[in-house]
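Why do we bother with holo predictions? Because pocket geometry can differ from the apo form. Keep that in mind while you read this record for S-adenosylmethionine.
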Amino acid sequence: MSSVAGHYGLPDLLSTILNALEAQGKSLDNLTADDLAAIDEFHIRGREATVELAEMSEVRNNSKVLDVGSGLGGSTRFLAAEFGCRIVGVDITPEYCETAQALSKLVGLEQLTEFHCASALEMPFEDATFDLAWTQHVQMNIADKPGFYREIARVLRPGGRFAFHDILAGPGGPPHFPVHWAGVPEMSFLIAPHDLLALLERSGFRVLTWRDTTAISREWFLAALQRRQESGAPPLGLHLLLGDTAADKFANVGRNLSEDRITVFQGVLEKTG
Ligand SMILES: C[S@@+](CC[C@H](N)C(=O)[O-])C[C@H]1O[C@@H](n2cnc3c(N)ncnc32)[C@H](O)[C@@H]1O
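The structure, written out:
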């Protein structure tokens, strides 16, 4: 098991989620993809950021889409439900892939979504398979950034699009740990925005949209932290994925955003050639 899978993997994840849904008053017999958004959108600004990225990406109902580092499959199911397109998720954490598959079945999206347990650095797909490759909050776990973007470019058809929503390095110095993507600094590989832009251009991409969302991400995250302090955690929430150090991880992400130690960017690029 990779140390990344060790960091994210949790025993009994599906039952934990189902119990939390019931505690929230949801009936498991008629759940929709929206009911899962509090836990399966594992990135800053949750569903809101996913909706924005989908609008920027111009997804169509016949698009073949790949979600790289799909986690519990929240964005995968959102895109399938919203656009009716077929979408494939890839993730290195086996418990996430199994749970993602089960959640898709639970909300009736198993025909449009599928999940493969594999590394983003070596994906089990032919060259030029996809129209759109999508990733949110994954590359901060990946040291080999040229390899990551090369592999994404490989599976995209020429003219295909790459959409990302990611945590990048900030000017304020290294982050405080633990954070949700890494318990220790050795698991975190943040790249500065201008270095990412140069790397993507070298990897065969042309920028269509490039957006610094740090300010709105900070505002959103600090408001969520405050709600949590005032009212406590709701039954269904990302704390269920963060283990015993959930409170420290939330506090450190807030601090890192406030001290400009991390930035948050979204972008859509086109594969040239
Ligand atoms: C913070 S979660 C984000 C999940 C999902 N993209 C989302 O936004 O809800 C990071 C995910 O990246 C996956 N991941 C990290 N490194 C990976 C790699 N080398 N290959 C595939 N998945 C990876 C983890 O297993 C985890 O599911």
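Residues 4, 8, 41-43, 69-71, 74-75, 90-93, 96, 119-121, 136-138, 141-142, 180-181 surround S-adenosylmethionine (CB under 6 Å).
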